[in-house]
Fold this protein.
Amino acid sequence: MRGQKNFLRGIMVSGLFLFLLFFPLQAFSQDFPTNPITIYCGFAAGATTDLTARALAEEGQKILGVPVVVENKAGGGSTVAASLVASKKPDGYTLAVVASSAMDIRHVMLAPPYNPAKDFTFLMTYGNYVGGICVLKESPFMKLKDLEEHARKNPGTLSYSSSGIGANQQLAVEYWAKQAKLNVKHVPFKGGAPACTALIGKHVDFTAGAGIHLNYVKQGIFRMLAVTSAEQRDPEFPDVPSLKDLGYQDLPPQQYLLIAPKGLPAPISKKLEDSFRQAVHSAEFKTVMKNLSVPFSFKDRRQLEADFPGTYKFYAHLLKEMGIEKEKTK
């Protein structure tokens, strides 16, 4: 009899412990949010990703009713920001805007300390990264074939900048170079802005633009030789061919991805998804995207979770085929 009482007492204590453990989170989630929300941006201040993240925060805080603050955590092509989010409490107060390549291309190449399939909640995507191969306006390379001819005659002498190791634009350039049988040197930076600065300073011969390069094209500082990671030509630059126009295979675009730690309570996840969905579909946000020449592309959590396994497998196979499975960070 005494043993039975002890057994029942043990069950009651265990139940009380679980109740106290989970009830506060569930209770607080009903009132979420009550504190400021932080969004880590995976790229440097001034980069296109940073500008879209700040526009997202601006519109999001109008809906959520609390401040939404952007903090730049650049490095590793946004794997640094992703790693930080993966380590945070799943309470909805720490999110990140990263390139979706942090979940596939860069994960394969850099092996960061997280599992993209198990450590995150994919909230949404809101745009596509469309790149471009650019040189300075005064460059003697008028067309992509001019750059190719110089690279063939002088193997290993041309260098290019990108927004980071594993950036979709870097991979697009490497894929093009492999098809064209070229040997070019990659110089990675922590975002598109410093990558463009490197070209302006003539530290590299061309850049694999990640979005912000378009500002310099519009200002007449850069000449864009080809559009990368695109199904067709950019309507703003109809005279610039895509890699597909030039007879090369190209890569599908990567996305601007909003993530949270794994394990968000359902009410918090729904509140974030609904609020930021409303934010990215606002006229104000779409105006920012248009001014930045970022194609708007929305996918919700369900779509992202369904697409992820196939996308990861595709890039893992492609990188292996190209012989660039792993690359050391600098």
